[in-house]
């Protein structure tokens, strides 16, 4: 999947520090972190109370509140899917 909006720039794709333990580790300096994620109810089936960015690095992908709008589900991507990030033809193995 590739977003060509804004000349190839994604409307919203960022490493997030929301969720459990959102003020520790690499998230300790993130003033935008929120105490819960939108997936809190979904991850309960995996036996965890919520995503913890220090244990489960994740990316917020999509933008339904700002322009241009982009909803990944319209392209077959489901919430909590695995995502590969490729920049300049190389797989980014760790986001910081």
UniProtKB/TrEMBL annotation:
Highest taxon in the source lineage: Eukaryota
Main location: secreted
Keyword Magnesium included in the entry's annotation: no
Catalysed reactions, as listed in the record: Endohydrolysis of beta-(1->4)-linkages between D-glucosamine residues in a partly acetylated chitosan
Subcellular location: Secreted
E.C. numbers: 3.2.1.132
Keywords: Carbohydrate metabolism, Glycosidase, Hydrolase, Polysaccharide degradation, Secreted, Signal
Enzyme class: hydrolase
InterPro entries named in the record: Chitosanase_fungal
One Pfam assignment: Glyco_hydro_75
Family (UniProt): Belongs to the glycosyl hydrolase 75 family.
Function according to Swiss-Prot or TrEMBL: Chitosanase catalyzing the endo-type cleavage of chitosan, the deacylated form of chitin. Chitosanase may be crucial in the degradation of the deacetylated portion of chitin in the fungal cell wall. Chitoolisaccharides produced by the hydrolysis of partially N-acetylated chitosan are known to have many biological activities, including antibacterial activity, immune-enhancing effects, and elicitor activity.
Protein name listed in UniProt: Endo-chitosanase
Annotated source species: Aspergillus pseudocaelatus
